[in-house]
Write the structure tokens for this entry.
Amino acid sequence: MQIKIENGAVAFPFSIKINSVTGKMDDYDTHIERFLSTLVSIFSDPDAAEDFIEKNGDTLAYEVYEKNIPEVNGEIRFCSSITYPGKIGNEYFMTKGHFHSRLDTAEIYYCIRGNGCILMEKKDGNPILEDMYPGRVVYVPGYYAHRSINIGDEPLISLPAYPGDAGHDYKSIEDNGFRHIVVEKNGKPALLENPRYGRMGK
Ligand code: F6R
Ligand code: MN
């Protein structure tokens, strides 16, 4: 079903289903796949990411299914976000992460499957890590960069929802990274300072 738009807004109510095992959305408009080869520089040890790909082949780290809801004030965009289990060295597979272009826009993540966390950081503040497991809702306030991290051994599936006009600023994270990373230490996730913070793009 194609969403009908009138006056720049969704014209009719609609519903979709997200498969709670695979995360696949039925009747989606856009499907984004992020393979490790395009994500090497988001990890704190890019050489380890290259080695992983050399050894295991290019690997799907996360994917997103979404409806093309207008990117305007008043609409709510949502998607199915699926981050796969895996690690580069000790660092878990994760999404690129971003600020919203409209910094004051918030977001909620509803976790459907898996075990992980959302890392949130303001431009100059301390990191906040919120757990994700089925049934859990994480509120990401405006001004916080955010990324999903899979710390488990099954897909981490969530439903993020955010204001239509939020927009996405990936560049700040591409250039600087997050100040912190989440790695496995003694079998548990640990939050450490990012040794490459401020020079991720280099
Ligand atoms: C939207 C949002 C999520 C992410 C998705 C993929 O504002 O936060 O829908 O877009 O989890 O992560 P990114 O966008 O960081 O590649
Ligand atoms: Mn977001």
Remarks:
- The CA atoms of residues 71 and 173 lie 22 Å apart.
- The chain is about 10% helix and 40% strand.
